[in-house]
Design brief:
This protein has two domains: 14-130, no CATH class; 158-340, Orthogonal Bundle (hpI Integrase, Chain A), CATH 1.10.443.10. It has helices at residues 14-21, 25-32, 40-43, 47-60, 65-84, 94-106, 111-130, 158-169, 183-199, 204-209, 239-260, 278-291, 298-312, 315-322, 327-332, 338-348; strands at 215-216, 221-224, 233-236. 27% of the residues are buried. Strand 1 and strand 2 form a beta hairpin. The longest helix is centred in the C-terminal third of the chain and has 22 residues, at 239-260. Mean pLDDT is 80; it is low at 1-48. Helices cover 56% and strands 3% of the residues. By secondary structure, the chain is mostly helical. A three-stranded antiparallel beta sheet has the order 1-2-3, with no helix packed on it. Helix 2 packs parallel to helix 5, helix 8 (158-169) packs antiparallel against helix 9 (183-199) and helix 9 (183-199) packs antiparallel against helix 11.
């Protein structure tokens, strides 16, 4: 393992430091990863081409300019530290990464910052590996301890999710008042929304983005539009969903449009002037908590759906159905699989 000592920060902090290190998105990348200076090869083996290639790699990942700038700064800090320890990025080992993180900890980095640093360096070494400058990513297999992981929710079974929908549909209607004169219309809309949350595992923001053009009842399909860092995907509707969704689209929704005097293609609409569904979703969540104490959040419902998918479909198919860009996001939901947890307990704690 390379010896290392504490060094003062070599990259200026604050606004002036940011400007000095990264004057602009592209030019900044070239300054952090020098293109003309003699030290360019110490940062990226391929010099100017490497700087541009790494920036292009990050752009292909769908990362925002701000995130890319942060990654370039992290890479610059690491390569400077590596140079002080007298080794190059191509020579970096997992032990070197661990040593660097240990040094950063002495500089006051929190576990969360350590994890971010490791993730950013992983981007860099993945790029070097793809460019065949290294054969193994030294960040692979490393993990930071003391970091809050993905929360493990109580996982509802498909039968429990169906029961939750049935119980919600039987809730008594609120009495009408001037702002909400047709509570039965709103309840039918809420049921249609809940159906997609419980069966297709949609994110709440995806419900808001849906338009009437995304619902294909004849084909029993629902298209989820593309969003930032998420590709478009098409999911199959269950037979039990078709009638309620058809009833909503052809009867309930036109009646709500007439009441609100809205002209919109948005599939799910509020009874007021807003197009944002957050207040509506909050109301539905509160209602769900009254009939199911184990309900915590919509993320829990989505986790339950994905966990069930993982038991019945190949993981790559689940990745598509869930709208995950990276397979690691899908794999994280395997932690909610009770069968997998039982197997781990049996393997590592057979006497429990």
């Amino acid at each position: 393992m390379h010896t290392f000592t504490s060094h003062p920060q070599t990259i200026p902090r604050g606004a002036e430091g940011a400007k000095e290190v990264l004057p602009s998105e592209v030019e900044g990348a070239e300054e952090v990863l020098p293109s003309a200076a003699e030290g360019a090869k110490e940062v990226l083996p391929s010099g100017a081409e490497g700087a541009e290639g790494f920036n292009h790699y990050l752009q292909q990942k769908g990362l925002s300019p701000t995130v890319r700038i942060g990654i370039h700064r992290t890479v610059a800090r690491f390569t400077q530290w590596a140079a002080d320890q007298q080794f190059t990025p191509e020579q970096t080992s997992p032990t070197d990464i661990a040593a660097y993180l240990a040094w950063r900890k002495t500089q006051g980095n929190t576990p969360r910052t350590q994890q971010i640093t490791l993730t950013q360096l992983n981007h860099y070494f993945t790029h070097l590996q793809q460019q065949q400058h290294i054969t193994r990513n030294p960040c692979t297999g490393l993990a930071q301890h003391g970091i809050k992981r993905r929360q493990l929710y109580y996982t509802f079974t498909p039968a429990e999710l169906q029961n939750l929908y049935q119980r919600y549909s039987q809730l008594p209607l609120n009495p009408p008042h001037p702002q909400h004169p047709a509570p039965h219309l709103m309840h039918e809309r809420n049921q249609a929304m809940l159906s997609l949350l419980l069966t297709q595992g949609l994110r709440t923001e995806e419900l808001t983005a849906l338009t009437i053009h995304h619902l294909h009842l004849r084909q029993a399909k629902l298209t989820i539009p593309a969003a930032r860092r998420k590709d478009e995907r098409t999911l199959t509707l269950e037979a039990t969903q078709l009638y309620p969704l058809s009833d909503y689209q052809h009867q309930t929704r036109p009646a709500l449009l007439a009441h609100t005097q809205k002209q919109t293609t948005q599939l799910f609409i509020t009874s007021g002037t807003s197009t944002n569904l957050q207040n509506l979703l909050h109301t539905i969540a509160q209602q769900l908590k009254t009939i199911e104490p184990r309900f915590i959040s919509y993320k829990q419902l989505r986790a339950s759906v994905i966990t069930h998918w993982l038991k019945t479909h190949p993981i790559r198919q689940v990745q598509y159905m869930a709208g995950h860009r990276y397979i690691s996001s899908t794999e994280a939901y395997q932690a909610n699989n009770l069968d997998a947890l039982k197997e781990d307990l049996q393997r590592y704690h057979p006497n429990l």
